[in-house]
Amino acid sequence: MADKCRLKIGVLACGRYVHSKTIWGPIIHPTGAASPGNLGTGVTNLALTHAWDVDGAQAEAYAAAYPGLELVNRYEDMVGKVDGIILDDFDSALHFHELARPYLEAGVPIFINRPLALNLTHARSLLDLAERHGTPVMCASSFEHAPEIVQLQSQVRTIGPLSGYVAANSMSDYPTHGIHGLFMAYAAVGGGIRSVAYQTPDWKIPNGVVIIEHHAHPGGQPFYGCVQQISGTWGWVRVFGQQTCEQTVSSGPYFWVALVVAMQRFFETRQMPQTYAQLYEKTQLFLAGFKSHLEHGGAPVLLADLGDWTAPLLNPDPYPAGFFA
């Protein structure tokens, strides 16, 4: 049972490949179980109070980790019961726009685990609906909110116009963890992206490299960023302009706290860390890299040329045909 002063958070799609059970959840609601996010005490004003998953057994397993958490029968059944939603499961990404719809229409702030969508049609539908109803949306990587990247952002603002950057991030596969490096770089230098190229033998394993072409910043020229997709548990960014600045991001028990605190601020204030347009451009960045590798042999793909291309799922779709009909 949540304290009256704590915000009630529902977890939508809580089965399979989720962070809210093993990382974010123990930060919000410590259970004593050993996990990367278990710091032994609550550090937020949030409480996990409700959850749903298409797989009943997965939902039951999730609820068992958080005594007092209430499971609901249908994905829309948390409307009116919670102050915010975490839409978590990577394997549900093809359906994020459908799962989020009842909450977007009801004005419930929603955090969506990356990626926001697997094609631009779904991304546009989700974001347009959110904007129409004034519903705040957040979609982020832990690296974007790491203190080192926040510090780098303040440094980057002083060295413009930018002339380029190099970055590296640990990854397992491109859509679940390779995306960390893309979003980390975006957080560090901003948008204005023209094209993306992703060269790798296999998007499901390290290693690879993503080349991001940016339009010129005021007073400068078009420039490029390079994001190395390698194995490990860290991130690094170096930015070039009138001067050079860099930061290394190290993961550890406190690494994930910054994102959870950012979630809390988002749920409490209803203020989005990034605009709807920025969330859309981040999705374009992710998808253009994927399309470059799969459809163009690693050649650059213009964001303007993405069309209705849909990225593949990493794992089988857990939703039966006609589920959202």
Quick rundown:
By secondary structure, the protein is of the alpha/beta class.
Which spans of ≥5 residues are poorly predicted at pLDDT below 50? 32-41
The CATH superfamily of the largest domain is: NAD(P)-binding Rossmann-like Domain
Class per helix and strand makeup: alpha/beta
Radius of gyration: 19 Å
CATH architecture identity of the largest domain: 3-Layer(aba) Sandwich
Compute the number of strand runs.
13
The number of distinct helices, counting runs of at least 4 residues, comes to: 8
First-to-last CA distance? 34 Å
CATH topology of the largest domain: Rossmann fold
Question: Would you tell me the overall average pLDDT?
Answer: 92
Q: In total, how many domains does the architecture comprise?
A: 2
Give me the strand/helix succession.
Answer: EHEHEEHEHEHEHEEEEEHHE
Question: What percentage of amino acids are in beta strands?
Answer: 15-25%
Helix content: 25-40%
The CATH class assignment of the largest domain is Alpha Beta
What spatial form do the alpha-carbon principal axes imply? globular
Strand arrangement within the widest β-sheet reads: 12-11-7-10-9-8-13
The main sheet comes to: 7 strands, mixed
Helix and strand arrangement:
Layout lengths: L6 E6 L11 H5 L17 E7 L3 H9 L5 E2 L12 E4 L8 H11 L3 E3 L7 H14 L3 E2 L8 H10 L7 E7 L3 H16 L3 E7 L8 E7 L8 E8 L3 E7 L3 E7 L6 H13 L6 H21 L4 E2 L23
Parallel strand pairs: 1-2, 1-4, 2-3, 4-5, 5-6, 7-10
Antiparallel strand pairs: 7-11, 8-9, 8-13, 9-10, 11-12
Helix pairs in contact: 3-4, 4-8, 5-6, 6-8
Q: Which key phrases capture this entry?
A:
Dihydrodipicolinate Reductase, domain 2, 2 domains, Rossmann fold, 6-stranded parallel beta sheet, 8 helices, 7-stranded mixed beta sheet, alpha/beta, 325 residues, 30% helix
